[in-house]
Design a protein that fits this description.
Length: 443
């Protein structure tokens, strides 16, 4: 207890000084506002994309003199041309006008095509030898472009529908999904017995969510960890640190630097996350205003309170762990220009954890993923991915947290020793041997 009482007073003053100095700067205020605005705008980008798509439609005329097309040919063609028409915005990229039967005027349709009323004219006929449908597309659109490719894919399904109809089979019966369920091996996997398998869209949403959260954690750790290292390098380069050593121990300075800069970073990060969450909740009302139909509101699918809480805990512990070493490495250089080279080994560790976690998303249940999720430097990424996708037990999460806390205690001791030695080294290129030697004799 005496050690804590002697540590916290000076460390608290240093942390408060670092925090006030950081958040009082104009760059911090402008950066926070900019990040919050970007986060909010990014969450509304799907609405903007849907709106831009909705304002661009391709009018297509379909002409045929045949009277034996399948009864559902209109529905089949439209479902292939506008697969998203049932989404929240009801967007239809292609508007199809049918002209069929012997009473249709093909010359009139071609005249409308020439006048620009239609972007394309799709003529449907039948091969007298094979009986299959034949298609001719008249348009100024590129023959190998995206829209022509969508039309070609759509008529392929229309041909299949016609062949099935002639064979006495319905395409809807062919495309009907099979009955599918999954029986979990672990009783704790569900409370209601066998459950249907998670939909493909749900799995994609969880994977995307995991990727986004991992990227956010990576950016925050690098950005705010660099703040810590830059603050140490700045004071060491200006010789202010020599004066501070008369009033505080290196360990107190280390703790103050990490807590102060970390709190400033978390303040900025918290504002950004709140802006992103506000944007996600606002998507529904904004869609209703833009498209005139009710949209869903609330958090994104997969972002449950448990996932969000796990993200915050893992981010906080991961930041503390890495920030300790950022501060220690920052104390080894006398100029801010050397911060990047001094922290490059730590950057390699951080990026290794990031890339491993991205690869692990497609193999989240593999043994190597589970094992590496308990490695403290990789835990923030891998355990977050496992929690977000839903393949982790509560005791596994608590075990990973316990290992991280123990590692942070060891890292604090090691970082304090390196920091104590580094703050006294000036005007020389510090090598690993010198650091280890100085750390052994430091107090």
């Amino acid at each position: 207890m005496r050690g804590w009482r002697t540590l916290f007073p000076n460390a608290w003053y240093i942390a408060a000084r670092e925090y006030r100095g950081r958040i009082a700067s104009r760059s911090f205020l402008l950066g926070t506002i900019l990040l919050a605005a970007i986060a909010f705008a990014a969450t509304e980008s799907p609405v903007l994309i849907d709106y831009l798509q909705g304002t661009s439609q391709t009018n297509v005329a379909v002409y045929t003199a045949l009277n034996d097309l399948p009864a559902d040919s209109h529905q089949v063609l439209d479902s292939q041309l506008n697969p998203q028409s049932g989404s929240s915005n009801g967007h239809r990229e292609f508007v199809v006008s049918w002209f069929e039967g012997t009473g249709a005027d093909e010359s009139g349709v071609r005249q409308d095509l020439d006048n620009g009323k239609f972007a394309a004219l799709l003529a449907i006929d039948r091969d007298p030898k094979t009986g299959d449908l034949t298609f001719t597309l008249r348009t100024d659109m590129p023959g190998d472009g995206r829209q022509a490719g969508i039309l070609q894919n759509a008529v392929t399904y229309l041909t299949l529908d016609d062949r099935l109809a002639r064979a006495g089979v319905s395409i809807s019966a062919i495309q009907a999904p099979p009955s599918w369920s999954v029986v979990p091996l672990r009783s704790s996997a569900t409370d209601d017995g066998p459950a249907t398998v998670t939909s493909i869209s749900g799995q994609i949403t969880s994977t995307v969510l995991s990727t986004v959260l991992i990227v956010l954690m990576l950016m925050a750790i690098i950005t705010y960890g660099t703040w810590v290292a830059m603050s140490v390098g700045e004071e060491k380069g200006s010789r202010v640190m020599e004066l501070m050593l008369n009033a505080a121990t290196p360990t107190q300075m280390l703790a103050g630097k990490v807590v102060g800069n970390g709190a400033a970073g978390l303040t900025q990060y918290g504002v950004t996350i709140l802006a992103a969450l506000a944007g996600l909740w606002a998507q529904g009302p904004i869609r209703q205003v833009v498209f005139g139909n009710a949209g869903s509101s609330g958090p994104p699918s997969g972002l449950s309170p448990a996932v969000f809480a796990a993200f915050m805990v893992l981010f906080l512990l991961g930041f503390i762990l890495y920030a300790l070493f950022y501060a220690a490495l920052g104390s080894l250089v006398s100029r801010q220009e050397d911060i990047q080279s001094a922290t490059s080994p730590l950057m390699m560790v951080i990026m290794s954890g990031y890339f491993i976690s991205i690869f692990a998303l497609s193999a989240i249940n593999e043994t190597w993923v589970v094992v590496l999720s308990y490695v403290p430097f990789f835990t923030p990424y891998l355990m977050l991915a496992r929690v977000a996708i839903g393949h982790v037990e509560w005791w596994e999460f608590l075990l990973a947290i316990g290992i991280m806390l123990a590692t942070i205690a060891v890292a604090l001791f090691l970082a304090a020793r390196i920091y104590s030695a580094g703050v006294l080294l000036y005007g020389q290129r510090v090598g690993l041997r010198q650091v280890l030697k100085a750390a052994r004799v430091s107090r």
